[in-house]
Design a protein that fits this description.
CATH class of the largest domain: Alpha Beta
Shape: globular
Distance between the termini: 41 Å
Enzyme class: hydrolase
Protein name: Carboxy-terminal-processing protease
Strand content: 15-25%
GO molecular function: serine-type endopeptidase activity
Strand order of the largest sheet: 20-17-16-13-12-11-21
Number of domains: 3
Helix content: 25-40%
Domain PDZ: 97-165
Signal peptide: 1-28
Structural class: alpha/beta
Largest sheet: 7 strands, mixed
Amino acid sequence: MIKKTKPFILFSIAVAIGSYFIGLNANAEPPVVEQPQTNQNISKEKLEAYIKFTKILNLIEHEYVDETNTTILVDKALKGLMSNLDAHSSYMDKKEYKDLNVHTKGEFGGLGISVGMKDGSLTVIAPIQDTPAYKAGVKAGDVIIKLDNKATMGMNIDEAVSIMRGKPGSSITLTILRKNETKPREIKINRAIIKVQSVFAKIIDGDLLYIQVTSFDQNVVKEVKKALTKYSKAKGIVLDLRSNPGGLLDQAVGLTDLFVDKGVIVSQKGRSKAENITFSAKADKDDVKTPMVVLVDGGSASASEIVSGALQDLKRAVVVGEKTFGKGSVQAVIPLGNEEGLRLTVARYYLPSGRSIQAKGVDPDVVVHLGSITNGTTNNGLIKESELDKHLTVGDANTTTEVMQNTLSNKGNNISESEVNKDSQLKSAIDILKALIITEGRK
């Protein structure tokens, strides 16, 4: 996610109409170079669209059965406009804009879940570990049909998030549909201050460093650096990005940069040339030699996919687990004054190899499913970017289930053998890491 500070220049309908009639003035001298007819048609089409919007707004204001408020009507129109662009663009009112700024700082009031729209339904992408939603048993793939007594059908993401957040200690009841269950279930959750600890570091077998990143807030790079310094003698690293819904782009780039010293980490390409940016590794005191495995699953999205995909492309780590979510688009946060803003999709991400993850995801080098496996395959009920309403297609690089909760405890500095044995993906990652260590030692 990128936060932009450049102001928006808003062109009023009056200016558009004035420009249009000046251009069509029959008595005016013809220009030296005549504009193509197609451009004139486009201008006329735009004008007609502006007039239609204003006409409908006036009709609602004067003819609707109840008295309306123009500001509220325009806000609702903007929300509808943005939500129909793609799954991640949105208009943020004062409360939503404030909530976004608070969330990226790693502390906010609410339940602790990441949600998306699938087939018009509000669906859980992943609960954040050790939050009220996680402890109450909310799982990836759950479809939320009611928030208290308010149906979620037709509700956009921002409205749903606004309802789920609230005063710490207050409660909300989620009515959910879960795969393979015939009846809805109600889950009552008490809101809390969600102060997310985004990085957990532990030791496995005495000399393997396990780093779990649960979300990409502004503290990730700093906390991972601390872990690498504290456990500098580790012979191998497991980076766990499972069910990490993403977050800040600079933290994803910075985290990857801790493990590589050269090469492109990620690039973004958009319609505007200003959005065509390449982020490259910097030669620094990086850990470029310690054998490394990255764990991912269907809940690994956005920033998680940038990190895992870049480390995979740069041959720095082996990626283990399940295919990732597939969110490869860039959202810029553009302020509208001091209290409102737009979250606008402005570009697509591309990994070092030039491939896009949009609606595709990152395929692990070694596929390992968590839990029971039927006929060798499972998707664990996790939704993908390609299943979200209004998801972007991959685009041209040259143009503009019931999921098992992480069984690891966050208490203590070590992961026990019994905990490892309950997590087939982690067990496979450790086995692969040990093989890498042996291979490196023989060179």
